[in-house]
Amino acid sequence: xxxxxxxxxxxxxxxxxxxxxxxxxxxxxxxxxxxxxxxxxxxxxxxxxxxxxxxxxxxxxxxxxxxxxxxxxxxxxxxxxxxxxxxxxxxxxxxxxxxxxxxxxxxxxxxxxxxxxxxxxxxxxxxxxxxxxxxxxxxxxxxxxxxxxxxxxxxxxxxxxxxxxxxxxxxxxxxxxxxxxxxxxxxxxxxxxxxxxxxxxxxxxxxxxxxxxxxxxxxxxxxxxxxxxxxxxxxxxxxxxxxxxxxxxxxxxxxxxxxxxxxxxxxxxxxxxxxxxxxxxxxxxxxxxxxxxxxxxxxxxxxxxxxxxxxxxxxxxxxxxxxxxxxxxxxxxxxxxxxxxxxxxxxxxxxxxxxxxxxxxxxxxxxxxxxxxxxxxxxxxxxxxxxxxxxxxxxxxxxxxxxxxxxxxxxxxxxxxxxxxxxxxxxxxxxxxxxxxxxxxxxx
Length: 444
Prior knowledge:
Layout (H helix, E strand, L loop, with lengths): L17 H4 L21 E7 L1 H8 L2 H7 L3 E7 L4 H11 L8 E5 L3 H7 L37 E13 H6 L10 H15 L4 E3 L9 H8 L17 H15 L3 E3 L5 H7 L5 E5 L2 H8 L7 E4 L13 E9 L6 H13 L1 H11 L26 H10 L11 H18 L3 H16 L6
Helix pairs in contact: 2-13, 8-9, 15-16
């Protein structure tokens, strides 16, 4: 994605060694404390997270400690992307130095479960299975390992929305309700640009930041990704070709702004040079905070379908809390996860403080998810995102080879945007490379 919003930097999954990274192990992971055996239910537990999410978790600690005498919690803001290196190193060394509770993204969790099947605790033994239906659809399959056990609970879900300049659309006499597919939006693009001078959407064309979220969104809207549910390569699927063709059409039509360079996307938004932004739920607060001068000018709609009549719901990404298998306080760690992620009051407190959109369905009964938002002209923007979740989204299989797929897809996208390559040909070559590099079969 652009330089503005991604919660995580590009992953470099499970290939680094502790020596190569030069990272010192830290955290409580199996060390000391007042634990009662391997599944200790008392003592001090540590939690690894990052930035605003770590701060949000700190807000849960007081109520948890009151409800669980004998357990204390330390939240460590490990930083991002440092957290991925530290977790990878810890798992690769048999769990040495890991915190008790780990905050992990959907782009890492499947790889960790695949490469380190003994590294993350089996939470089914502690009662996690009873929450199977408590979270937004499409998230639960990710927490299941090859052993069919539950290894995490969902925390954050990020449904996709199309943020758009309502004033630009009005000036161009474009009705957003008429834009049900990207074909519609591409057709309206020249009118919007002629009336406002704004291009439709921004993307890092050279791929210097592997800005692939938009491409991925277009695939997810069609229920596909780089890999299918069996782990076969689908990078050259008709859906992937359609996604890249949409991007090529935007570029060929002069509707795609180049956001390469640190801060470019924010500058273009500030200058009114972009009419839309395909972003996830976390952008609601971000846009209001970063662009206060544009209050009242933005709205959010369901993302247009990638193909006419197609799906208009997609989960961009999600994050989870899990327990290190080497923790000496697994029961205590599980209690903290259960307290933080299954109680609506607690998870909504974290959303208010850290903008981590809750995956827990019961959280949406809170009035704040129905409230009008002044930055969006009084639109009930959170409700629109919740409604998007209720229409259902396919589970995305990131696999342990996501980083390879991301690089090859980014190269293919740049070839199309900078050299005029054919989307089908570029993706066919990329899919063949991905299959060769990973030993995976290509889907028929």
